[in-house]
Protein: tRNA N6-adenosine threonylcarbamoyltransferase
Organism: Paracoccus caeni
Amino acid sequence: MNEIVFLGIESSCDDTAAAIVTGEGRILASVVSSQTALHADFGGVVPEIAARAHAERLDLAVEEALAKAGVTLADMTGVAVTAGPGLIGGVMAGVMCAKGIAAGAGLPLVGVNHLAGHALTPRLTDGVEYPYLMLLVSGGHCQFLRVDGPEDFTRIGGTIDDAPGEAFDKLAKLLALPQPGGPSVEAEAALGDPDRFDLPRPLLDRPGFDMSFSGLKTAALRLRDQLIAEQGGLRQTDRRDLCAAFQSAVADVLAEKTRRALAAHPVPVIAVAGGVAANQSIRGALEPIADEAGARFLAPPLSLCTDNGAMIAWAGIERFRQGHRDGMDLQARPRWPL
Ligand code: KG4
Ligand code: ZN
């Protein structure tokens, strides 16, 4: 093969992922092994369990990706790996795996920032040109990025406390709904009345693009406790109405901040990524805001919104084209701001 082909490895949270991607943006294979079931009993990701599972599964994920793509390591141009930010045990497992492959197969190694992987996804899926805006909303992140180049990101705003996915997960826990909370809350919300309860829209009264979601969660907790005190328990309609009110508050906050971000940065495209971007009512709230600003609204397919190896392979290719190479001293970093 003359074309660039990269192996991408991702293990920064609870998904063990490997993918093979070409320089033209063709995804030859993308394997994601989710650990959701391993952490289900703990109400959140347990770092030690995650690290051990990554160590056990990384080689298998890589082998499976190569087999699915019908290639071998000899066909690769390089290996890209998430070197941070994330849960350090998992990031280390990925970096060690990638170093072993790079050294063994004599391939260049490229360390990738996980957030850059998400932020560059619109270029992989739709060949979007710079500059563009990215709203990254997941269980661990919430930020507006202005993307001007493969290594040129400006964080123009973000949450000052919880990420929205984390807030969805906590609300689900409060209401005894299954984890991950986002999809459960969305399903309940679809059957509820968003106007029965009045939840706050935090920070909308302040200028700028910063957001806050922890107050929203506390307000939902108070409402739940008040309902339990008044009625002796929660009815199904209460749960549904609370979910609907919560989702509509999150959607309102994201929509208004997106409107402001586009007004201050009139770029042709706004893209979303992260697990929360799977939420149909949030997507539905953002699309007209983009339309109004004359920008294209881009939501990558769900499998590329959530954590995956393809975005890491692609970000590696972009960095590689910039001449970036890492040595065997590449460090795993728990924190790594863009
Ligand atoms: O991007 P992701 O897979 O992992 C990271 O956090 O990096 O995002 C997972 C988060 C979880 O908090 C989950 O509850 C949330 O995304 N999520 C959703 C939906 N699907 C997943 N939140 C709202 N609505 C959804 N449909
Ligand atoms: Zn992520």
Observations:
- Residues 114, 118, 138, 307 surround zinc ion (ligand 2) (CB under 6 Å).
